Amino acid sequence: MNSLIAKEKREYCKKKFQEFDNDIKATWNLANELSGKTPSKSVDETIKRNFTGSTKIIADKFAQVMIEEVDKVIHTCSQKVFDQKYENIEKSMVLLEITQEVGKIIKHRLKFDVWPSFDKISPKDILENLDTLQTIITDLLNMSIKQALVPIEIKTRFLRPVYKKGRHKEMSNYRLIALQQKIFKIMKIYISDEMDNFFQKN
Question: Distance between CA 192 and CA 184 in Å, rounded?
């Protein structure tokens, strides 16, 4: 009897996990349910529970608090980063068009355990469709490099407050995480690598 119950339970779990194959949140909720764990509250649930007002009012308040927190850090930081003068620089860097680097960046340099930005495209989505998207992404980035222009839509970031410590109702106890579109992240990695190579050689 026990073996039959265990078999039916395995079949039930297998079927449920197959149903939630493309829904990460539902999959984790099911895993927590089967293991008897209480799932942690999402960022949105935490914010709704601790702050009142419309989404815009809460977002504006968070923005103001973060501006004030950054302002405090700026005025207490005495270190000068760009205090060295460079003279007689004879070489300059040329940013060449991207060729085969996009696929390598996506496979080996993007983090796959991060939230998607407001475009709802995750690194996993790009990787799973790499054969189709590699040429498209390469053409988009090369067009941007050739025109020396990055569209504002690509540079736009989605900021999410994440609780750090202390009282949940104090906005200063949260930190903002900037979720950027993965195409812009790929471009940043490529430009950073090209700059590193230039400085190492010169």
Answer: 12
